[in-house]
Structure formats: C-alpha cells, structure tokens
Automatic annotation (TrEMBL):
Species this protein is from: marine sediment metagenome
Keyword Secreted: no
Keywords for the protein's UniProt record, in alphabetical order: Repeat, TPR repeat
Name of this chain's protein: Uncharacterized protein
Amino acid sequence: VCQHLIDNKEYNKALVSIENTMKSDQDDRILIIVKVIILCYLNRYKDALVLLNDEIKLPDNKDRILPFVYFLAVFSNLTIGDFNSANDLAKKIIKKYPKHALSHATRGLAFAYNFIFKFDTEKAEEDYGMSDLDKAIALETFTPNQALFFMLKSRVLLESNKYEESIESIEKAISILSSKIELYLSKSAVLMYFNKYPELLDLLDEMLEKFPKIEKDLKMKKASVYKLLGDLDAGFNIIDELLKSNPKDKELLNFKAYWYQYMNNKGRSFK
C-alpha cells in the first residue's frame, strides 16, 4: 500500500501508512529507511536526518543498508546546505566500504552538489565528483542505480558547459532505463540549456508517445519551445488544441491569455 501511494506521489498518505505500520515494530530498519525516503519526498530533510543520524550511530555490522543510510544522509545534508557534514559522511562511507558502488556515488554526489551550488568554492575547483561517479557506474550491478549515476554525471557535465558529453551521459541513462520519465526530463533540460530547440521538439514528441499521462505539461512545454523559436502561431495552435479537450482548465486559460498578451506586445495577430 505504501509503495502504491509513493508511486502516485501521495506522500502525506504514505507517511501516515508507514507510521501505522511501524507501531508494531519501531526498530525495523527497512521501515525506518522507507519513512526517511518519504520525508525526503516531503522536503522534510531535517526530520529525515534525525532518523538517519540514529542509524549511523548504531554499531557497524557491515550490513547492506548502511551505504544507503549514508547516501540519504549526505543527500539530506546537501539539501539544507550543510556541505561540511555531507563531506565528512562521504569520507567515512568510503573508508567503510571502499569497493561499494554506493560509497563512490555518495562521495560523487557530495562533490557534484558542491560543484553545482558552490558551498565551498575552493573544494569545487579541486574535485567535482566525476572520478567517483565513474567508479560508481563501473562497480554498480543494479541497472536502475547505474542509470541515475549517469544522470547525475550528465548534470555535472552540463554545469561544466560540455554539451556533447552531457547528452551522451543522459542518453546512456535512458538506454538503461527507458521507462523513467525523470531521465527524459533531464535530457530536455540539457537541450534547453544549450538552446537545442529542434532537438528538444523531437524529444518532446517522443515523450508524448511514451508518457501520454502528462500530455498537457509536455504540450505546454512544446508551445514554449515554439515561442523561443519565434513560431508563435504554432505555439498558440497547441494551446488552442489543448483547450478544446480541457475548456475549463485554469492553467491553460491563463497560458492562452499570456500568449495573447505576448502576441499583442509583438504587434502580431493570429492566423
């Protein structure tokens, strides 16, 4: 039940569900980790860290959960801007599990976030996580994780202004896990960042076939790309088509009003 709620992004209900389950076994480490993941989805990183810090303080039993605990703790610290704590934890997990893919992914994540957000400028210039991410990719045997590592690597390469390498990395991720929409969204971000609008339109068409449940969002994005290309009529036609099937959708109505305003500012009329 809890996984179903998470998949449907009903995170508050998922939190209630896992807390009810934990009433019968509050010390179940798997349930604690699931609760931490839900708290992260809810952006309650400080609450997640309270649970994670308790887990980290437990005796080191060399279990399979510990690397994931450290990964979540590093991620949570980074989201609240505490790079020093994240960096310290990343060093510790590398020492404990030097040949574990997630250990290198954890340190790679810490350095990558520091490179992107510049928590520590000096360290950002020294290491931006690429060597650890490459090690994590090489060591990882669970392909969904490998795809996510490629996605993170692509983001670092984007920040390094390396288009070809960034696209290559995210395309590798998609080839591994073609059902995950986040990978396609990441690719769209790379194409948008480098102003590759024709390629972005092709990608959005591909996404419309693969992910019809988010048709409205994808078509709105497609309309915005046409605007960037200067083809205002094509963008307007997409909005108008969406409104025919969703005539009372406030977001679409506001988008169409914005489009009218933009056209008027340009001294244009619709064909």
